[in-house]
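YM 10:42: 8-amino-7-ketopelargonate synthase sequence, as discussed on the call
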Amino acid sequence: MTTSLSERLSAELSGLRESGLLIHPRVLDAANRARTSVDGKAVINLASNNYLGFADHPALKAKAESYLREWGAGAGAVRTIAGTLRIHEEFEEQLAHFKHTGSALVLQSGFTTNQGVLGTLLREGDLVVSDELNHASIIDGLRLAKATKKVFKHADIADLERVLQENPTDGLKLVVTDGVFSMDGDIAPLDKLVEVARKYGGVTYVDDAHGSGVLGEAGRGTVHHFGFEHADDVIQVGTLSKAWGVVGGYAAGHHDLRQLLINRARPYLFSTAQPPAVVGALSAALELVQSDPSFMERLWDNTKFFKAELERLGFDIMGSQTPITPVLFGETADAFAASRKLFEEGIFAVGLGFPTVPKGKARIRNIVTAEHTREDLEQALRAYEKVGKELGVI
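YM 10:58: structure's back
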């Protein structure tokens, strides 16, 4: 008997509900800032990726409005037909200059950028070796590729070398890693990864979604942090949301990379170009972070303070090296309970459990931003201390 749509939907939702995995996103009633309103409640926001506080910044809004009025609400077509506006190319030149790369191309999101770039570069006979904790967009992008796919243990240089030794090929060799890992907040050992990749004639591919705007001079990212920004054998991809406060994805690297992606990357070929207001806001973000170093200074001052105080209270922050600051609760039910209790105290911080993170490693992931004040963080720490003691975590 044929399964009806209603039966399928009901069965899937029931399964999620019974396993405790059914998501009901909280709704923001105001702009995404360090202090906002969520489901009608005033809260300190530790759940956002808005690292530099750009999502509601006046400079971004002003340039977005300017581009909207001059260039219209939408681009009107895909880039390869009639959707490439002069401002698209100007921003890509600005981005390549910022990243110190030979070229840059903007796509619709960080997720589709991984699909487009990996799907374009990799062919049958190639070898791609991916860190076991890489983002879901990398995993999905690799599913589209016909290359031989192997995984190395997280940030384990010896295991990477073992995989490369055991899988010789005359094709392209691509070592793929996140720059900053989004669940644990650790930084990839890119200096060692690039060294091993080069030893075997390979190319290093870095998804810098959480490193761009956070690491390196003026937020140029993990690649710049390790000194590889002018290297043609290192490809940078990432998102234009998070630190940049807007939306989109980018690929930056070898001077020929852009042209190949224009011709082959399917998300680029079959998606309408970014709206002018988005381009304007992004251009303003790059200008702002380079002209005013105080954004990154506040981001890191706040990060160091918050981490140190959480550890002083007795919390396990899982070795995080970046503004992504996980607090370990262990079991999924405990992390979710802690999130609810923190919300009651006016702190918006989301619990994460299996399958997003491994069993026994459930946590609340906090992200400190440049916009948080010391008062915000001290209030959050008081709430954490209260909830941690109630749940017996500290």
